[in-house]
Amino acid sequence: MTQVIGKPIKRKEDPKLITGHGQFTDDIKLPGMLFATMKRSRYAHAKIKRIHTAEALKLPGVMAVYTGKDVQDKIKPIRSIWLVPGCNLIPKDRIPLAVDKVNYAGEAVAMVVAESRYIAYDALELIDVEYEELPVVVDQEAALAEAAPVIYDDVPKNIAFTWKAGDVPEEVFINAEVVVKQRLVEQRVIANPMETRGAVASYNPGSGDLTIWCTTQNPHIHRITYADALGIPETKLRIIAPDMGGGFGAKIAVYTEEALVGLAAMQLKQPVKWVEGRQEHFLATSHARDQVITTELAGTKDGKILAIRAKNIANLGAYLSTMGAGVPTIDFGLMVTGAYDIPYAQAETIGVYTNTTPTDAYRGAGKPEASFQIERMINIFADKIGMDPVEVRKKNLVAKVPYTNAMGCNYDSGDYHGTLAKALEAIDYVGLKKEQEEARKNGRLLGIGISTYVELCGLGPSKVAGAIGFGGGLWENSSIRVHPSGKVTIFTGASPHGQGEGTTFAQVVADKFGIPLEDIEFVSGDTLIISMGWGTYGSRTTPVAGGALSIAADRIVEKAKIIAAHELGVPLEDVEFAKGIFSIKEQPDQQRTFKEIAWSANNAWNLPDGMEPALEGQSFFDPPDFVYPFGAHICVVEVDPDTGMVELKRYVCVDDVGRIINPMIAEGQVHGGLAQGIGQALWEQSVYSDKGQLLSGTFMDYAMPKARFFPMIESSFIESPSPVNPLGAKGIGETGTTAAPSVIVNAVIDALAPYGVKDLPMPLTPEKVWKAIHERSDGQ
Amino acid sequence: MAKKYPVQVKVNGKMKSAEVEPRLLLVHLLRDEFDLTGTHIGCDTSQCGACTVMLDGMAVKSCTILAIQADGAEITTVEGLGSREELHPIQQGFWEKHGLQCGFCTPGVMMAVNGLLQENINPSEAEIREALDGVICRCTGYQFIVKAVQHAAELIREQQSQPVSLENVTTRGDVS
C-alpha cells in the first residue's frame, strides 16, 4: 500500500452524485406523505388581527391549517444556543408561527398541510390575514435613534446586547503620531446554498418515534433543540441529514419549520414534507454579515501599528438566531488585530434588533468581518503615511509562532513573512508595480490588492465554548468499526455536506491501516447511528473530527498489534506494523495482515487473556486550542473608467492551512470560498426597502457569481502542521471568504487612486465605481 | 380539481405516461411522477439551471416547461447520461477534475455542458464559462467545472477519433 494522504484522490462521494442517485431531502418520498407550505407575512412589522383559514380548509386535499394560536402550546420557541455572557443579552427567540405580531417580512403566520405540493400552495392563497401595520426599522444605526420604532417593549432602543473585549489606554491614541479612522460596512449577504432548506417528518404512533430528515449542518444540535421544543425525549427524535446541497452556515441555525412539520406528522399520523422555494429561502433562511464597523488605528509615521479599536454595530434581524450573538462578538472581536503584532486592541459590538430576517453564520462567521476591517485599515494607514501597503504589512506581521494576540488567541503554526514573500514572488509584485505605473501613464486604471489574513478555526476547546456562552461542547466524535471481513466503516459526529470528508477521512484511515480506499465507508449525519457530535462549521471537521478519527485509528492499531503478537507468539515490542502488515522484527516471513487480524478479533477464538472481542475504536477529541489558518492573497484588477466595470485579471493565493490530506479537494475549497468572497466584494447584496420589503429576493435581483466572472485562480499551499490536533490540520473552508473581500476592495481603491478615491462600500458595482470616478473628475 | 390530460414522453429511452394537470411543471413530472430525482430544483425564477435536462436534443430548464408541452418528446435526464459502470465522458470529467462539491447543481450543470459539447467539441475557456451562464454553482467557484468540461471534451474527441480502424472503412474510403 502506498501512502494516500497528500494525494489528489478522486472523491468516493461522487459516483452517486454524478449519476443522479444522491438523496437530498426533497428526493425523499414516503407512503402517504403530505406536503406543507407556510403562509408568510407580507409586512415587516404588523399586528396580526385575525387569520381566516376557513376557505383554505374547504379546498379538497387540504388536511390541516395551523396558526400561531394552534401551535403555541405545542412547540416552544426555538432558543439561540449562543448566549454570549457579560453583555446584558436580551435574547428574542423565534416562535414557530407568529401569534400577535410579525417582526419581519416573510415570518411564518400559518402552515398548510395538503395531499400535494400544488394544493398546499393553492391553499396559501385562500388564507386571509388581517394586519395592522406598525412602523418599520431595517437599518441598525437607524434602529438606535431616539425616535426609532421599538420592536420589543422590553428591549429599549432595540439593543440586544453591548459587548466589549480588550482595552486600549486612551493615551495610546492621544500620543500616537498617526491616527486613522474609517467607517466600513460589511453589507448584508445571503449564503444561498443551491439546495434550499427542507424537512420530511415521519412519526410512528405506536412507538412514539419521530424521525425528521432535514437540511442541517449539525443534526445533534437540531435534535437537542427540537426535542426540547416539541416536548419529547431526545431519544424519541431521530434527525437525519441526508445528502445536502451546501450549507455555508445557513444550515447551522435551528429554525422553526422543521419542528412544525414534526408536529404535523405527529398530529396527522402521516409523513409530512416541506421544502422551501428559492424566494421563500431568501426570506426565511438566515442572512449574514450586516455589520457597520468603525475602526481607529494608531501608529507611527514609519509604519508600526500601536493599537486598534473597532466598534461594530451589528444587525441581528428580528430574532436572535442560533449563533446570532456570537458571530459579531466573539468570532469578530477576538480577531480584530489580524495577522499583525499589535500591542493593544479593543472591540465593542452593539447587537441591534430590526425588522429584517435574522442574521447568523455565513462561511467565516465574524472572521471575514474582522479580517476586512484590519486589512482595509492597513491600506488606509499606508496611504496616510505614504508607504507601500506591502511594507506596512511586513513591518507588522507576526514574526514567529506561537504568538498570542492582544485578545489572547494563540496563533499556532507557520511562517507569516515567508508566506507573504511567496505570494509576492508568485505574482511578481515588483514587476506588477512597474506595469501599473506604465498603465497609469496611459490612462488605464490598474489596481493591486492584498491581504495577509488569519482566521480562527477548528472550533474548538469545550472549556472555551463554555466560557463564551456556547450552549454545548465543541469536541468531536469519530469511531471506526472494523468488520470481520476487514472492511471498515467510519462514523463521525461532524456532518459534512459537500466538503469531501467521505474521501479525506478514508484517506487517513487507509494510511493508518494500510488498506485500500475501496474498503472504507463513511457515515455521518444520523443521530440514531452517531452517538453524539457537534456538526460541521467553523472549519472544524478535519481538525477536530479528523483528530478524533486519527486517535480512534491508533487505538485500533494498538489492539490489533497485541492480537498479532499473541498469534505470532512474540512479545508485543517485537511486532512492527507497516502498510497493512504486522511482522516480527528481523523475521519478515512471520506476519499477519490487517484483514487476518480483523477476522481474529471478530471471531475471538484465540485472543489474549482478558481481551474483549471485536475491533472498534472511538475517540471523543476535545482540542486543546483553536487552529489559525492564514495566508497571503494578492489580486490585480482593471477598472473601466467609462463603465465602472471591475475586471478581475489575476488572483494569487498562498494559504497555510496546515497538513493537507487531499490537495485537489483543498484547492476546490479555496476556489469556492474565493468565489463567495469576491462575490461579496463586487456583486452580492441583500437590499431592503424602508418598509422592510426584501428587494433582492430572487436570483434575478441578487447577483450570484457566474462562471464568466472569474479568471483562473492561482492557488498554492504551504503546509505547517498545527500542533493542536493529531493530523496537524488547520481547516480550509473559510479562507476565501475571509481574505477575498479586502483583497478586491484594496485593489479597486488602488485602481481609483488617480481620482483620489479613499474608500467605497461593498459591493463595488459598476454604478458605484462609475459614480466615484465621475463625481470626482467633474469636480463635485 | 383541475382537469387532467395524458402526457406521454420517452425518458432515458423508456416510454412513460402520466395524467397531469395543465400547470404541472416538467421538472415535477420527472421528479414526483417518474421518481427521477436526479434532476433538482434550485430556484423558482429559471436562473439556477439545476433542473436542466435534454429535451429533443436541446438542453432546457425543466422548471420552465409544462409537462404537457413535453408530450411526445424525448428526454434525457442525468440518470440517462451514464451509469456508475459506464460513465459518460462528462461524468468522468466532473469526477476526475473535482467539478462538484455538494453535487446539487451538478446534474443540471452536466446537462448544460452536454448541450455545449454537442455544438462545440473543442470549446475555449471563455466559451465554456459563457455556456455556464445559465447555471449557478455555489460550491466550486467554477474553476474545476471548467477543467471538468475541458477534460470531458478531450475524452469525447478521443472517443470520436477511435472508431477509425480498417473494418470501419468502407470500400469508398469513407469512415462509417
What can you see in these coordinates?
- The complex is a heterodimer of chains A (780) and B (176).
- The radius of gyration of chain A is 28 Å and the shape is globular.
- Chain A has 3 domains: 14-134 and 194-246 and 251-284, Aldehyde Oxidoreductase, domain 3; 291-459 and 625-777, Aldehyde Oxidoreductase, domain 4 (2-Layer Sandwich), CATH 3.30.365.10; 475-621, 2-Layer Sandwich (Aldehyde Oxidoreductase, domain 4), CATH 3.30.365.
- In chain A, the strands form 7 sheets. Chain A has a 7-stranded mixed beta sheet with strand order 3-5-1-12-9-10-11, with helices on both faces.
- Chain A starts with 13 loop residues before the first helix and ends with a helix.
- Helices cover 29% and strands 25% of the residues of chain A.
- Chain A is of the alpha+beta class and 780 residues long.
- Chain B is an alpha+beta fold and 176 residues long.
- Chain B has 2 domains: 5-80, Beta-grasp domain (Ubiquitin-like (UB roll), Roll), CATH 3.10.20.30; 89-161, [2Fe-2S]-binding domain (DNA polymerase, domain 1, Orthogonal Bundle).
- In chain B, 34% of the residues lie in helices and 14% in strands.
- Chain B has 6 helices and 5 strands, in the order ββαβββααααα.
- Chain B has helices at residues 26-33, 78-81, 89-96, 106-119, 125-131, 143-161; strands at 5-11, 14-20, 52-55, 58-61, 74-76.
- Chain B has a 5-stranded mixed beta sheet, sandwiched between helices.
- In chain B, a hairpin with a 2-residue loop joins β3 (52-55) and β4 (58-61).
- Chain B is globular, with a radius of gyration of 18 Å.
- Chain B starts with a strand and ends in a 15-residue tail after the last helix.
- Chains A and B meet through α1 and α19 of A and α1, α2, α3, α4 and α5 of B.
